[in-house]
Fold this protein.
Amino acid sequence: MKINQKIESFLHRRGFTHPDVRSLVRNQLYLAAGTCLIAAVVSIGFAPWALGLAAGAVLVTFNFWSLAKFGQHLAYMRKGAVVSLLIRFYGRLILSGLALYGLIVWGQCSIYALLAGLSTVVMNAIFWGVAGLRQKVKEA
Amino acid sequence: MRKALLIVLNTMALVLAAGAAFAAGVAPEVASATATATALGMAIAAAGCGIGQGLGLKAACEGTARNPEAGGKITVTLILGLAFVESLAIYALVVNLILLFANPLIG
């Protein structure tokens, strides 16, 4: 599809050199965009649950973007892989904590919607696993 | 051992002070217990997730060193594993924030 190619070339320019990682990040972008669209359409205007759903999806997409961009070079690093992984993990966790604090305390957004938005990355991974399994079954 | 004991005591003191600080209209013992539970919960979650990520990365590095041609598949699996672990840490963070600032069990 043309839009897939466009997004993948955009991701390639952004440093996602591994093709499988690129399609994972592309799927996550689709999921986040779809979630935001659903939140905007169903809530018709502003609702706390819509804010939570969209913000959760966007937050976890940023997290996944950063993880995937760094993770594609991780297994090939010769020195300091674990330390840099842990520093980035805790850095992301602190930033996510600040964002979630703002959303829960100041934004008063719905917790269930926020958790649903945060679960998009898990859904993405499950879809990826199921797609791989289906391909294996077809090949066999 | 002495250092660890000092750290634990320090954390307890900080947590109890924080509990007393944010106890507005809540019984002090409930507030301090909530603060202690939150601190312990987040510490355990973050430490567990950090250890899990480190172990996953170790295994991926070993696998890539043994069989460099499988590096691509290993990388994707590693990223998915790391994303799962990280989402667990984020869930723990959300639960702890709920306990602290939007606790449904306290008024």
